[in-house]
Write a structure and sequence with these properties.
The complex is a heterodimer of chains A (112) and B (119). Chain A is an all-beta fold and 112 residues long. Helices cover 0% and strands 48% of the residues of chain A. Chain A contains no helices and 11 strands. In chain A, strands 2, 4, 5, 6, 9, 10 and 11 form a 7-stranded mixed beta sheet that branches. In chain A, strands 1-3-8-7 form a 4-stranded antiparallel beta sheet, with no helix packed on it. The termini of chain A are far apart. Chain B has 119 residues and is mainly β. Chain B has strands spanning 3-7, 10-12, 18-25, 34-39, 45-51, 58-60, 68-73, 78-83, 92-100, 105-109, 113-117. In chain B, strands 2, 4, 5, 6, 9, 10 and 11 form a 7-stranded mixed beta sheet that branches. In chain B, strand 5 (45-51) and strand 6 form a beta hairpin. The chains are: A mainly beta (112), B mainly beta (119). Chains A and B meet through strand 4, strand 5, strand 9 and strand 10 of A and strand 5 and strand 10 of B.
């Protein structure tokens, strides 16, 4: 299975400040069909996961534009330009290029 | 509005069985692969199983292969997970999730159902 490693695992951030989460995979996530299947999910406390971004950088409908995704190959990043209170939770990356799909360990974002 | 509602979780002894259900609405269920993902208490997300839209292809994580069976009833818009020979390490919240065809990802999730395996 492809190992996906997130860092940091815990991220205290002051309100209004930027945050950045890294996701690294053990193999390139560039698929033979030309796409790169890397998604980001947010899980607020007590809730089920919600997809924020797919195909590296495409934001889901209703997701604030302060969230952005970037990267290629084996290195990917989720950025929050200005953290708000509602952004508290755990963030997971997931690769869908290699079977079985695998998730990162999660990064807990909290307000400093 | 897309909705996925799981049920069937509960407390079971090691070696026991449970069947989870997931009733969906808001999309054409018979057109999509469907998945089960689990999350042990305080831990991360782990993919468990998936089934093709027509029910004729199924895949499982190594940890549940031979013990869990995924199935679906497209006439009832319902996804199932039959869990046999349950182990303590199967304790988790189980989520059903819809495949986002063409993007190799999961776009909608249910609220989850808790399975506790304990003597």
């Amino acid at each position: 299975d492809v190992v996906t490693t997130q860092s940091p695992l815990s991220l205290p951030v002051a309100l209004g400040q930027p945050a950045s989460i890294s996701c690294r995979s053990g193999q390139s996530l560039a698929h033979s069909d030309g796409n790169t299947y890397l998604s980001w999910f947010q899980q607020r406390p007590g809730q089920s996961p919600r997809r924020l971004i797919y195909n590296v950088s495409i934001r889901d409908s209703g997701v604030p534009d302060r969230f952005s995704g970037s990267g290629s190959g084996t290195d990917f990043t989720l950025k929050i330009s200005r953290v708000e209170a509602e952004d508290v939770g755990v963030y997971y990356c997931m690769q869908g290029t290699h079977w079985p799909w695998t998730f990162g360990q999660g990064t807990k974002v909290e307000i400093k | 509005e897309v909705q996925l509602v799981e049920s069937g979780g509960g407390l079971v002894q090691p070696g026991g069985s449970l069947r989870l259900s997931c009733i969906v609405s808001g999309f054409t269920f018979s057109n999509y692969w469907m998945h089960w993902v689990r999350q042990a208490p305080g831990k991360g997300l782990v993919w468990v199983s998936r089934i093709r839209s027509d029910g004729n292809r199924k895949h499982y994580a190594d940890s549940v292969e031979g013990r869990f069976t995924i199935s679906r009833d497209n006439a009832k818009n319902t996804l199932y997970l039959q869990m046999d020979s349950l182990r303590v390490e199967d304790t988790a919240v189980y989520y059903c999730s819809k495949d986002d065809y063409g993007s190799n990802t999961l776009d909608y999730w249910g609220q989850g159902t808790l399975v506790t395996v304990s003597s």
